[in-house]
Design goal:
single chain; alpha+beta; Glutamine Phosphoribosylpyrophosphate, subunit 1, domain 1; Rossmann fold; 2 domains; seven-stranded antiparallel β-sheet; six-stranded antiparallel β-sheet; 18 helices; disordered N terminus; disordered C terminus
């Protein structure tokens, strides 16, 4: 019995922010220790998924695959990595947005048609997964997981069964897919990168110092292995890379209509990753500056809720020429644990994660800059923590608009019932709920202005309710819709 799987339902995560689906990584590098390189790539992408992870390698036609519940550092060690030999590797870190947290739903997923094996790892969500799953079941395919990733994998296998060469099979399979998908696939001969036509989730291409290609969700994963950033995988692109580092792409035939998730800039991506030539840190500071222009506050200090709100807080403070200081110290080793806190510790709530500097806070007017409020419970605890520490006033500022709508493209918010801004009638009511003296959000127009890009470039559905990809009604609140089928033996 896998003890991690048994304990998975008891994992404690004190972060109540929206959570992204996954991080993906792939490399084709004959002669290199590809599993070790992939391990470090996943290590850099750990923030994108902390429930499970896995690595698959190809050595000729032999696949080695290891995946489990837990963090990258918990699942992999020297003994495990030494068994993952090959020239091509694919890795994945998962946070579940379709399907529960269990070993059946961990990635990468392996499928086979005749002598052709492939492994696939995916970031995002399909909105037509039910339709595709039913189509495949009619064709005789069975499923052992509850993920839309397995739907994609078996869709490629189906296209291969129609006597298509690999490139055409992959292209035709993903033409059937609707939604958000940044995907890496490995076969015995190729590393393949696929991105949905809207480019909702990030995916980039890099090269190592030896000229070998790497694909990753974010550029921070390239930095950790000493690889150079080349470019984004384009929206709608299918890119094949062979062992001789030859690239074959459909890029020249594409017309671009991107809908990049703006929440990647606000929260998901690491601040040291890049987007359109600038660091995510830069964008977050600009969001903070715009917030200061729209919603200034008279205060002694500007502070942040570490760590995602820090760049915005610095930008806010610089724009208003207010001192920025640390007042909440984060325990960086509490974020996830398999051990349940006692009832006494549960009552301490947020103190398990954040400890206040009372001598900085006492008697002061404090502006707290954070990136977002989802359910409101954590913000309420933070305001109480500051006031219990003697803060004279607490002014909350958010570097994004109110989140009022669920996301179906790879964020774990599938119902409006989870969102305080959807349940409360006004900002005044939210302010009262969290206990702050004042609360202000960044405006939608101000958010776009801070990026320096066009409104049409982004998906802002969680703020505006305007979905660039049509959403079936069945998806709301339907994260676990396939669980009852998850243990059927795979074809």
């Amino acid at each position: 019995m896998n003890i991690k799987a048994v304990l998975s339902d008891n994992i404690i995560d004190f972060d109540t922010k929206p959570r992204d689906a996954c991080g993906v990584f792939g490399i084709v590098a004959p002669g290199e220790d590809v599993s070790r390189v992939t391990f470090f790539g996943l290590y850099a992408l750990q923030h994108r998924g902390q429930e499970s992870c896995g690595i698959a390698t190809f050595k000729d036609k032999t696949v080695s695959l290891h995946k489990d519940i837990g963090l990258v550092s918990q699942v992999f060690d020297e003994k495990v990595l030494s068994k993952l030999k090959g020239d091509i590797a694919v890795g994945h870190t998962r946070y579940s947005t379709t399907g529960a947290t269990n070993i059946q739903n961990a990635q990468p997923i392996l499928v086979q048609f005749e002598d052709q094996k492939l492994v696939i790892a995916h970031n995002g969500n399909l909105v037509n997964a039910t339709e595709l799953r039913n189509f495949l079941i009619e064709k005789g395919y069975k499923f052992e997981s509850a993920t839309d990733t397995e739907v994609m994998a078996k869709l490629v296998a189906f296209e291969l069964s129609c006597s298509k060469e690999l490139k055409i099979a992959v292209e035709d399979a993903f033409k059937r897919c609707k939604g958000a998908f940044s995907v890496v696939i490995a076969t015995s001969d190729y590393l393949i990168a696929v991105r949905d036509p809207g480019g909702v989730r990030p995916l980039c291409l890099g090269t190592t110092s030896r000229g070998q290609y790497v694909v990753a969700s974010e550029s921070c994963a390239l930095d950790i292995i000493g690889a150079d950033y080349v470019r984004e995988i384009a929206p709608g692109e299918v890119l094949l890379i062979n062992k001789e580092q030859k690239l074959v792409s459909n890029l020249s035939s594409l017309s671009f209509a991107p809908h990049h998730c703006i929440f990647e800039l606000i929260y998901f991506s690491r601040p040291d990753s890049t987007f359109r030539g600038l660091s995510i840190y830069h964008y977050r500071k600009e969001l903070g500056r715009q917030l200061a222009i729209e919603s200034p506050a008279l205060a002694d200090y500007v502070i942040t809720v570490p760590d995602s709100g820090t760049p915005a807080a610095i930008g806010y403070a610089e724009e208003l020429k207010l001192p920025y200081t640390e007042a909440l110290i984060k325990n960086r080793y509490v974020g996830r644990t398999f051990i349940q806190p006692s009832e006494m510790l549960r009552e301490l709530g947020i103190r398990l994660k954040l400890n206040p500097l009372k001598d900085i806070i006492a008697g002061k007017k404090i502006v707290v800059v954070d990136d977002s409020i989802v359910r409101g419970h954590t913000s309420r605890k933070i305001v109480k923590l500051l006031k219990d520490s003697g803060a004279k006033e607490v002014h909350m500022r958010l570097s994004s608009p109110p989140i009022k709508w669920p996301c179906f493209y790879g964020i774990d918010i599938d119902s409006r019932d989870q969102l305080i801004a959807a349940k409360k009638d006004s900002v005044k009511e939210i302010t009262k709920f969290i206990g702050a003296d004042t609360l202000e959000y960044l405006s939608h127009d101000g958010m776009i202005k801070a990026t320096g890009l066009s409104r049409n470039f982004f998906c802002t559905a969680c703020f505006s309710g305007e979905y660039p990809i049509k959403i079936p009604k069945e998806l709301e609140g339907a994260k676990f819709r396939y669980e009852k089928y998850a243990k059927v033996v795979s074809r």
